[in-house]
Amino acid sequence: MTFRQRLLYLGTLDACVVSLSVLIVYCLRFDNDIPLQQQQLLPYVIATHVVLNLFFLYRMKLYHRLLQYASVGEVVAIVKATMSAEASYFVLNTAVSHSFPWLGIPRSIYISWALTTLGIGGSRLVWRMFRDSYLVRPAGPAPRNTLIIGAGQAGVLVTKELRNANTSNMQPVAFIDDDRKRHRMELMGLPVLGGREVIADVVNRYDIQDIVIALPSVPRAEIAKIIDICKSTKAMVKILPSIADVISGNVSVEMIRDVQVEDLLGRDPVTLDLGGIAGYVSGEVVLVTGAGGSIGSELCRQILPFKPQKLLLLGHGENSIYEIDMELRKNPSQTTVVPVIADIQDLRRLQEVFECHRPTVIFHAAAHKHVPMMEANPSEAVKNNILGTKHVAECADAYGASHFVMVSTDKAVNPTSIMGLTKRVAELLIQGMNHTSCTKYVAVRFGNVLGSRGSVIPMFKKQIQQGGPVTVTHPDMIRYFMTIPEAVQLVIQAGALANGGEIFILDMGKPIKIVNLARDLISLSGLKPDLDIQIEYTGIRPGEKLFEELLTAQEGITATKHDRIFISKPIHVEWDELLFHIAMLERQLQQVDPIASSENVKESLIQLLSRHQDQMAYEHHLQKDPVLL
Fold first, then answer.
1. Catalytic residue from among 411, 423, 440, 545
2. Are 328 and 368 spatial neighbours (Cβ–Cβ below 8 Å)?
3. Which of 47, 292, 500, 623 could form a disulfide with 440 if both were Cys (CB 3.0 to 4.6 A apart)?
4. Residues 442-477: tens digit of each pLDDT
5. 320 and 463 share one domain
6. Same domain? 309 vs 418
7. Contact at 8 Å (CB) between 390 and 578?
């Protein structure tokens, strides 16, 4: 409907309402026996009321407003418009009746204002009720009974949006709220049935198919507890995540997303020391190795807002570097973004990059990380994780970089896999470099990252989509988990805390059983574990441990000024001896017989580490986890 059509229809309707209101008041005033003189004045009175009311309704922009979103604001505007019209008529009639007394009307006629207000407001309400009941939802899937958790501002906005949206078939039927003052009350015409303890009962009693958690300001730990209750029901669980949108009143169906595994971690967002980060990143030439990977690409996204002078995206795979380069270029920035195709194993190419761009801050995220795959390809793990790290670290020193931040892993602690062994050697390498260089070398150690390439989450989701089974290696396997954004934020923050030589340990929260993670993913998909989707145990893969640790036996931790970052106690590194053993490894990899080389790599790595850490503690760790021997 065009604006002109809308103006014509609503204007005609309002003119009829005003005319009828004036006529009813006249009939009431004269008990249905209107005197002849007043009958002659009636057309003038009605016409004047119609013109004045339509004028003020238009001035209040009531013909510009969408009725499906009508609220208290529209009611107030209608009252103001009709009162203004009646006041204007009173002034006009008073002035005219002084000169022409026969044109005066009884004062009781002015109460037509009340009927006019009720009539115009009521017409909008009737239309809104008719539209909500019969016209809003097109023919399609049957409505899904929806329970809203949170009877606050967010819950109200979600309920309004679900009722008005054509793109959703969710139908709110009740609220849940932990505030006892709201229990047994009604909100938006829906009952508040109780607190979280009655969720399971309400789902069964009202045949709830969807649950929407509308608690954007509640701490993540509490949200995780509520999700845990919801998981035990048959309903699909969704969540409204953004408090900013609630504050602005901007909520849409698209913002209501499915609950994800990240929501189950129960951790509040990371708070950053923006000034400290800007101090060592802003205006600098920043190099990110492995920029096409999960961690590397997120590093690039989060570094860009700090306005470095230049951001170098270094990676071996052209497709992944192309994708992150195109993504970053979508948003205008003063930073020059430079894609660099290079292999960190190629020292000469790295020297060319450093010579050309002179990076001052390096985030080293390039690594081979797949544990079973590196067991089958140990020489490649050594080349990339140790020698590649050595090349980048040496270039940082040679070209005067101020900061070198390496992304490490909890698998480097008491390592039993090739991947873990190589990352531990890389940690020792940068700690040794820190003693001989002006560059601040640090490593940041954390556990598994949810959603990263090759992690269990994408694999589990794919298996669920295919109907199962979901494969888990061992029922007692546990891991630490973080989200990609929070891990990267802490990596960048750790660089601001660096004095040189530290290994920063990120607070990973509580470790999670992998089988529980699989069950959660199945439940959040609206399916039943072991009923709709089977879970199968495949056995521990080569190089894996049942559990991971964040500290070696020799390391202790001290707190930093950031409550989510700790520093491990540095250990002594025999630098010349370490370099000698790395050189021996490099020569070993150059052997003609690759099979013989692969067989000896792991033994050589263990011997190398035994000279730089407590071998007794390492053997004790293996005894605690005998399945790995």
1. 411
2. no
3. 500
4. 999 887 777 666 667 778 888 888 888 999 988 888
5. yes
6. yes
7. no
User: What amino acid is encoded at 161 in this protein?
Assistant: E
Distance CA 77, CA 100 (A): 34
3-state secondary structure string across 497-553? HCCCCCEEEECCCCCEEHHHHHHHHHHHCCCCECCCECEEECCCCCCCCCCCCCCCC
Q: Residue 553's pLDDT band (boundaries 50, 70, 90)?
A: very low
Mean pLDDT of the chain: 81
Residue 585 reports pLDDT greater than 50? yes
The most confident of 67-76, 279-288, 489-498, 509-518, by mean pLDDT:
279-288
Residue 330 known to be catalytic: no
Percent of the chain with pLDDT over 70: 80
629 lies in some domain:
no
Sign of the torsion angle spanned by Cα atoms 80, 83, 86, 91: negative
Judge if 413 and 523 occupy the same domain: yes
Q: Which two tokens stand for residue 470?
A: 């979901």
421 and 490 share a domain? yes
Computed from CA positions of residues 185, 190, 193, 197, in that sequence, does the dihedral angle turn out positive or negative? negative
Q: Which residues contact 329 (CB under 8 A, 6 or more apart)?
A: 337
How much is the average pLDDT of 185-205? 91
CATH number, position 201: 3.40.50.720
Which structure tokens are listed for 142? Answer: 């049957």
Give the model's pLDDT for residue 625: 44
Burial environment of residue 43 by CB neighbours within 10 A (0 to 12, 13 to 18, 19 or more): exposed
Are 428 and 352 in a shared domain?
yes
Range of the structural domain that residue 78 is part of: 3-135
Lowest mean pLDDT among 290-299, 431-440, 606-615: 606-615
Beta bridge partners of residue 340, listed in sequence order: 314
Provide the 10 A C-beta neighbour count for residue 576: 9
What's the rounded Cα separation, in Å, for the pair 102 and 400?
A: 100
Q: Are residues 353 and 478 in the same domain?
A: yes
Q: Which residues lie closer than 8 Å to 553 by C-beta, 6 or more apart?
A: 414, 613, 614, 617, 618, 620, 621
Are residues 351 and 499 located together in one domain of the fold? Answer: yes
Q: Judge if 130 and 148 occupy the same domain.
A: no
Q: Looking at the DSSP assignment, which residues form a beta bridge with residue 557?
A: 568
Express each pLDDT in 479-520 by its tens digit: 777 788 888 888 998 888 888 888 888 876 777 888 888 888
